[in-house]
Structures are given as C-alpha cells and as structure tokens.
From TrEMBL:
<feature type="binding site">
    <location>
        <begin position="72"/>
        <end position="76"/>
    </location>
    <ligand>
        <name>GTP 1</name>
    </ligand>
</feature>
<feature type="binding site">
    <location>
        <begin position="134"/>
        <end position="137"/>
    </location>
    <ligand>
        <name>GTP 1</name>
    </ligand>
</feature>
<dbReference type="GO" id="GO:0043022">
    <property type="term" value="F:ribosome binding"/>
</dbReference>
<feature type="binding site">
    <location>
        <begin position="311"/>
        <end position="314"/>
    </location>
    <ligand>
        <name>GTP 2</name>
    </ligand>
</feature>
<feature type="binding site">
    <location>
        <begin position="246"/>
        <end position="250"/>
    </location>
    <ligand>
        <name>GTP 2</name>
    </ligand>
</feature>
<dbReference type="InterPro" id="IPR032859">
    <property type="entry name" value="KH_dom-like"/>
</dbReference>
<dbReference type="InterPro" id="IPR016484">
    <property type="entry name" value="GTPase_Der"/>
</dbReference>
<dbReference type="InterPro" id="IPR006073">
    <property type="entry name" value="GTP-bd"/>
</dbReference>
<comment type="similarity">
    <text>Belongs to the TRAFAC class TrmE-Era-EngA-EngB-Septin-like GTPase superfamily. EngA (Der) GTPase family.</text>
</comment>
<dbReference type="Pfam" id="PF01926">
    <property type="entry name" value="MMR_HSR1"/>
</dbReference>
<dbReference type="Pfam" id="PF14714">
    <property type="entry name" value="KH_dom-like"/>
</dbReference>
<keyword id="KW-0690">Ribosome biogenesis</keyword>
<dbReference type="InterPro" id="IPR005225">
    <property type="entry name" value="Small_GTP-bd"/>
</dbReference>
<feature type="binding site">
    <location>
        <begin position="199"/>
        <end position="206"/>
    </location>
    <ligand>
        <name>GTP 2</name>
    </ligand>
</feature>
<dbReference type="GO" id="GO:0005525">
    <property type="term" value="F:GTP binding"/>
</dbReference>
<dbReference type="GO" id="GO:0042254">
    <property type="term" value="P:ribosome biogenesis"/>
</dbReference>
<protein>
    <recommendedName>
        <fullName>GTPase Der</fullName>
    </recommendedName>
</protein>
Length: 449
C-alpha cells in the first residue's frame, strides 16, 4: 500500500472525481487505527480516551492503482449530547457524502445497542456498507466475528487494524464496492508534448513554426516508439522534442487561400482538441480583436494549458507598448493566469522563451494538491472569510478533494449551494495559494442533499 502525497502525477488519471470512503463506528472501535493502516502512515490521531473528539479529516489513499479519499470520523453515538452530538452529526454528513461506508465494530465486544442504531442510520443512507470486525488479532476472535452477520450488513470482514491482519482483503472489498473506475486515458510512457499553434490569420503562425524549426535545425519526422500524425510537426526546442499538432495547413500555407474565419475556427478547434497546451498568437502591433478573443475562449473552454505569445514585437514602439498594456488589462482580465511571452517570429526575438513557458503551463495543468494541504488551507480561508449569509444561513464547506488534473478540477462538498461570486473568490484564492500559472482551474460545488 502506498500513500500518495500528490507530488507525482500519474499518467493513469481517472476522469471522474476520486471516490470517497467514510469510516464510521462507535468511539474506540479502532477507526483511526484503521485509517492509519489504509493511508499507510501515522497521521490520524489515535487516542485511548473513549469519545475523544476528532473532526472529519480527509486523507489521500491508494490501493491497487486506484486513488480514493478516506474520511476519518469521530465516534458515532446516536444519543449523544453537545460535543459528541456534533461528532455524530459529522459522521452522518460523512456518510451522506461518501461513495462507500466502512462500518467498524469491535469484534472482542460484539454488536452493541449503539451499533444497531448506527446500522439503522446506515440503511437510511442507502450507501454500500462494508462491515469490519476489528481487533480480530487472533483466530478465536475471528471466529466470534461471524456473529456479526446478525447486523444484516452482509459478510463481516475480520481484521486487526493494529497488526494489519486482513487489511489487504478489506481494501479489495472496499475497491469492489466503489463506483467503476473510469477508463485509463493514457498508459505507458508519454510521447512528446502536444502543442497547438493557433491564432487568427496573419498573426504569424507559419512564420513562428518555420522559425523554431530553422532555429533549432532539428525538424524531425519521427521519434523512437511514437507514431506521429502526418499532419503534425515534430520540432526540437530547448533540448526537448515537441509535437506541434495539425500544422500541415500551416506549412503548406493552404489556409491563406481558404482563409475564411469559419475554416480558421474549425482548424483551431481541431488543433486545440488534439493538444495539451496551446500557444495563442496575438499580433502585438494591432489591437486585440474579437476574433483573437474567440480563439482564447476556445482554448479555455477546451480546458487546455495556455501561453499567449505577442508576436511581431519588433513592430512595437514605446507608444504602442503603452496602449498594449492598457489593452491587456482590459481585454485579458478574465485570464490573468495565462503565461505571456513577447516574441518576434521575424527576428527570432525571445523565441527561446517559448519552451520554458510551455513547460510551466503544463506543470500547472498537471499539478495535484494533496488533500490534507487543500483542506487545511480551505478551512483557514472559509473561517477568515465565510460565505455570506443566505436566507438566515451561511453554507459551509465540509471538505474538498481534487477530482482530477489536466486541467486541475476541485470539488467542494458543502452544506448548501454557493454564490457564483464566492465560488470565484475561492478559485482566486486557490490560485494565489497554490499557483496554477498557465492553466485553467475548475472549482465545482456539490451541496449535501
Ligand atoms: P476510534 O476511536 O474508533 O478511532 O479508535 P482508535 O483507533 O483510537 O482505537 C482505540 C483503541 O483500540 C486504541 O488503543 C487502539 O490501539 C486499539 N485498537 C485499534 N485497533 C486494534 C486492533 O486491531 N487490535 C487491538 N487489540 N487493539 C486495537
Ligand atoms: P499566419 O497566417 O498566422 O500563418 O501568419 P504568417 O506566418 O503567414 O505571417 C503573416 C505575415 O506577418 C507575413 O507577412 C509575415 O512575414 C509577417 N510576420 C510574421 N511574424 C512577424 C514578426 O514577428 N514581425 C513582423 N514584422 N512580421 C511578421
């Protein structure tokens, strides 16, 4: 079992959100010990004192290549008061937001009244429940655990969270109860990075492609182990091979002849779709036009990493520079995160800045924030600046996970719907904290039903 700290982005990234597993049960049955075992490190707090309170804490876990989130809950006591009642409510919330519930019972004690009450709550939730008979440290206890069939939750899984006995089988059962894994998008070693070179006609796309090809003197036709579409170009930049997608038209310059905007936008859509990162060329000598905006929108909506290259910089004088800065503030304010480079395909100015900019954008695009760090930051943020009160209540964040990468997608589990403004605020702060320069970021809210 390996704990993923999120620093390495796997290529087998599932498309859907990470499944959530909630661990519930009476105080002291061994929930924290089990969570520790699942995540493979000692981080959850283990206390000997019954009823010691813990808030719902999510952790990243991984088993057999499947990533998921484990939520540790405090002890579930149905008739609890005050603090303990608050924990019970938290546990119920954890159950409601979970895909799979792991219900832990102490096998050395057997099912108690309190366990029976918990079972009723679990039935109401209609979630798949895995029954765990913990503290089955030896065969004698393991045998006794069979009496837990009486709870009506199916087969009890005897384990010893403390010593590890049975935990592999349990994890297999948890995985089997999860929603089916989305197909693996791409396996094996990754080919060259795919880049779309887009922009309205005459901004200098062909010139730039010719420039990088000539400058680097290394237009290659194939790379060992990869098949490259004949319409693409492989170009070496800064010691790395890059795949410029759908460039056949650029090289043959056929788009000049049939350069209607309709065909231009179709070509852009195709190239962006096939790429991981787009370089949008703008003509720095001319005002940013609606057509430029449409190209930028196509990239952002496709969820691709974005580098904006202001081309024809050789034509920019101090006067133009002044107005361009104002235009950028005004016209590009919805995408302040885009990486910008000022280049000249004609003179070769700063063309060497392109590869580092692409790498930075791609790193953001594939960045994964560990669940622990994400939730710590979010708790602090929402405490400092809570959601405004709506109809007498202020919706709160229960917890958050990163549902995917390329581009980064975050899901906030909340007590109610969020205002669009507050959602944007969270996204802005998320960018400030973790930095996603060059990549769109998606934040969605999943209110508790
Ligand atoms: P929680 O309140 O349900 O989170 O329970 P904890 O994880 O804090 O565990 C309560 C106590 O049970 C601790 O002293 C643990 O060391 C102990 N414990 C947990 N799992 C096992 C186990 O598999 N076998 C034995 N013998 N003790 C365990
Ligand atoms: P495309 O339609 O986007 O492929 O644009 P082209 O590469 O065909 O360039 C359109 C025109 O702009 C041509 O006349 C190029 O010579 C000119 N051009 C391209 N890049 C630059 C540049 O950096 N500076 C200047 N001054 N002209 C450029």
């Amino acid at each position: 079992m390996t704990f993923s700290d999120g620093t390495s982005a796997d290529s087998d990234e599932p498309a859907g959100p990470q499944p959530v597993v909630a661990v519930v049960g009476r105080p002291n049955v061994g929930k924290s010990t089990l969570v520790n075992r699942i995540i493979g490190r000692r981080q959850a707090v283990v206390e000997d004192v019954p009823g010691v309170t813990r808030d719902r804490v999510p952790y990243d876990a991984q088993w057999n290549g499947r990533r998921f989130t484990v939520v540790d809950t405090g002890g579930w006591e149905p008739d609890a008061r005050d603090r303990a009642a608050a924990i019970a409510a938290q546990a119920e919330i954890a159950v409601q937001t979970a895909d799979v519930v792991v219900f832990v019972v102490d096998a050395t004690i057997g099912a108690t009244d309190m366990d029976e009450k918990a079972v009723r709550m679990l039935r109401r939730s209609a979630k798949p429940v895995i029954l765990v008979a913990n503290k089955a440290d030896n065969q004698a206890v393991e045998l006794e655990a069979t009496s837990l069939w009486s709870l009506g939750l199916g087969e009890p899984h005897p384990i010893s969270a403390l010593h590890g006995r049975g935990s592999g089988d349990l994890l297999d059962a948890i995985l089997a109860a999860m929603p089916p894994a989305p197909p693996i998008i791409e396996g094996g070693p990754r080919g060259p990075r795919r880049v779309a070179l887009v922009g309205r006609p005459n901004v200098g796309k062909s010139s730039l492609l010719n420039r990088v090809a000539r400058e680097e003197r290394a237009v290659v036709d194939s790379v060992a182990g990869t098949t490259v579409d004949p319409v693409d170009s492989l170009v070496e930049m800064d010691g790395e091979i890059w795949q410029f997608v759908d460039t056949a038209g650029l090289r043959k310059r056929v788009n000049q002849a049939s350069g209607t905007e309709y065909y231009a936008s179709l070509r852009t859509a195709g190239a962006v779709e096939a790429a991981e990162v787009a370089v949008v060329l703008l003509d720095a000598a001319e005002v940013i036009s609606e057509q430029d905006q449409r190209v930028l929108t196509q990239v952002v909506e496709a969820g691709r990493a974005l580098v904006i290259a202001f081309n024809k910089w050789d034509l920019v004088d101090a006067d133009r520079r002044f107005y361009l800065d104002k235009e950028i503030d005004r016209e590009l304010k919805r995408i302040p995160w885009a990486i910008r480079v000022n280049i000249s395909a004609k003179t070769g100015r700063a063309v060497d800045k392109l590869a580092p900019a692409l790498r930075r954008a791609l790193a953001s695009w594939e960045k994964r924030i560990p669940t622990g760090a994400l939730n710590q930051w979010l708790t602090a943020l929402t405490q400092a600046t809570p959601h405004p009160v709506r109809g007498g209540r202020a919706p709160r964040v229960l917890f958050a996970t990163q549902a995917g990468v390329a581009p980064p997608r975050f899901v906030l589990f909340t007590t109610g719907p969020f205002d669009a403004g507050y959602q944007r605020f969270v996204e802005r702060k998320l960018r400030e904290e973790f930095g996603f320069e060059g990549s769109p970021v998606e934040v969605s809210v999943r209110p508790r039903k």
